[in-house]
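Q: Please design a sequence for this.
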């Protein structure tokens, strides 16, 4: 579990990745294009889809983001279970 904690904390350490999770928790099932548009318009980030894809890879490795195919698009989903498990391990 310690390795899992380290991966989760590493993923959460970056402010852009936290913004990505904020956006996915607010409106789940976003495409990469939709997520990029929300980050640029709402948070005035100057970031490319390729840079966001790299951040998403870190979040997926930590289990915080999942993706699935919907038609011809890949849809991104926030998975809060790793965070819940982490907090429960400290609270219980």
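A: Design:
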């Amino acid at each position: 579990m310690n390795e899992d904690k380290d991966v989760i904390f590493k993923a959460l350490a970056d402010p852009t990745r936290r913004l990505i999770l904020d956006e996915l928790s607010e409106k789940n099932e976003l495409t990469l294009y939709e997520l990029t548009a929300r980050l640029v318009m709402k948070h005035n980030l100057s970031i490319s889809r390729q840079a966001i894809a790299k951040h998403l890879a870190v979040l997926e490795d930590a289990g915080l983001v999942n993706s699935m195919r919907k038609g011809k698009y890949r849809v991104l989903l926030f998975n809060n279970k790793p965070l819940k498990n982490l907090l429960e391990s400290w609270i219980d």
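Q: Thanks. Anything notable?
A: Helices lie at 2-12, 15-26, 32-43, 49-61, 81-91. The domain at 2-79 is CATH 1.10.10.10 (Arc Repressor Mutant, subunit A).
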